[in-house]
């Protein structure tokens, strides 16, 4: 067993940390307040090569793994979980191509994703956890697929270069009739409405995406008819590790802010860090952070070494986001009244990280996945 | 032309430094490339981007952990690196003697050294290196341009700045303002994996023996007097001025 990062992994971590603390962190509060989508910084991240790092080298990418992705995710999450989501949700469009794309499809679609964002369209207004109940339709007309329907809650919807869309055909009911289709961001018939009023992660661009008679070549289908749902689930089995990673960043930030504040805030003639009640909160945050990081890196290692990873990634995502949520809540408590105000960064941590318990499969669904694998 | 950029690794500026016994305890501290040294690497890359034919060699003298800083320099754009690995603590003069040999062996004509090291605050290495090499040097450089077989450099003086022209070979010490160091990119981090990082020992360069021996380290601790002046504004201001003049002796 070896817990050392490789020299390259250390460099990637260092770069991500430097970029996140120098460029993202100082701007995050303002983006949050104004619901600003930080297009320039997304471009800057892409220019540094931090975007879609999993694209294989033979298709113009860096061919890096889930562990590298987790290292980057933690650093971005530390600075701003919303920005983290923009960059890492893009991976949701890369993974299906990696898992189910043919060489021809990879050649066609990966180059656009080297510097451009991807978006993954699974959820709809009436179905999220029950994804197989999707209604968006794919019809085969000659050599084309015609897509009709509306997807909901789509991260990067409207600002991406490539959509991966899950739809249903008339061939069969349930997940048996599902297909996974690549739709270029500028395809005629695609439109979107930006969703306003998110509780947190307010700089990430979330949209309702409408597909109205969108025609793409049949060769844009990944896998075959009936494979859509399977591809989506296999994708999420991997990408939720990035949600875990972002959660680690939030938890680490909550801890750092709490330690800093507890040392300087005085009550009853001494720093509050002298109070055991405060010390235990800090200790609990650290225990949660370190144990969920181990699980997250383990799950990433399983993916990178082609081992079964569905259960491990569900555990990582659920644990890390629960840990981060309670760390953020405790960070507010450590800050007392100031923690409740947006002059301090901790209330944003809580608002941001709430989403980590919901998207890419709610934490209830993660528990369902784990329990199912126990009782099989 | 070959350029050597000398670099070292120092504790991250955020690190809280402790002592253990009579030594600084660096366990658990995060290390980074000295920020001053980054200016040197960046400047060398800019000379290349400005059209000069250069090979950039990162040169470091220090313990194994320096490797991380060396790799950072390769990722930013140095072409190859030489790491003279040692656990010995050398003073600036002995460091300069070893590094001068290495610079000569590399056949470099231009050497960048950080103006001042971030950990021990010494600014001696650059001038000492120039002295051993018998080369001219420019300290605290804020602007640099190649002109033929010379460099034109602007640097800080006590009363302002001056611009000088020195013939190559020369030693330049860097400081904030010289440039804005770039981030390495992920593709360059991966490419750096294939760049040469040659290991060497002080003995390969004549192994100067340290002139000074470290016998103890301590950290300066500032304590507050927590003195409060009462009375109205005039009274308390008078008391403050008196204290600053007579006790602190700063006025
Ligand atoms: C900001 C944001 C960004 C998002 N980005 C994307 C995106 O890029 N792409 C995308 O496709 N989707 C995205 N989503 C959608 C997200 O994945 C869904 O919201 C999530 O999967 C939950 O689905 P739902 O909202 O329909 O909740 P529901 O499925 O209606 O769930 C409601 C509640 O019931 C619980 N529940 C449901 N079924 C079960 C069960 N079997 N056992 C136990 N409990 C259950 C849930 O855990 C939850 O507590 C995003 C959502 C948000 C808010």
Set down the secondary structure blueprint.
The complex is a heterodimer of chains A (376) and B (251).
Chain A: H1 7-34, H2 39-48, H3 66-79, H4 81-89, H5 91-100, H6 103-115, E1 118-121, E2 137-141, E3 144-155, E4 162-168, E5 178-184, E6 190-194, E7 206-217, E8 221-222, H7 228-264, E9 266-267, E10 270-271, H8 276-304, H9 310-339, H10 346-354, H11 363-375
Parallel strand pairs in A: 1-4
Antiparallel strand pairs in A: 2-3, 3-7, 4-5, 5-8, 6-7, 9-10
Helix pairs in contact in A: 1-3, 3-4, 3-7, 4-7, 5-7, 7-8, 7-9, 8-9, 9-10, 9-11
Chain B: E1 2-6, E2 9-11, E3 18-20, E4 23-25, E5 31-33, H1 35-49, E6 55-62, H2 66-76, E7 80-85, H3 92-106, E8 110-114, H4 125-133, E9 137-147, E10 150-157, E11 160-167, E12 170-174, H5 186-192, E13 197-200, H6 233-247
Parallel strand pairs in B: 1-6, 1-8, 6-7, 7-13, 8-12, 9-12
Antiparallel strand pairs in B: 2-5, 3-4, 9-10, 10-11
Helix pairs in contact in B: 2-5, 3-4
The structure holds flavin-adenine dinucleotide (FAD).
The level of helicity of chain B is 25-40%
How would a crystallographer describe the biggest sheet of chain B? 9 strands, mixed
CATH architecture of the largest domain in chain B: 3-Layer(aba) Sandwich
Q: What's the helix count of chain B?
A: 6
Taken together, the total number of domains of chain A comes to 3
CATH class annotation of the largest domain in chain B: Alpha Beta
Which consecutive residue ranges of chain A, at least 5 long each, have pLDDT under 50? none
**Bound ligands, named by name, code or SMILES:** flavin-adenine dinucleotide
Strand order of the largest sheet of chain A: 1-4-5-8
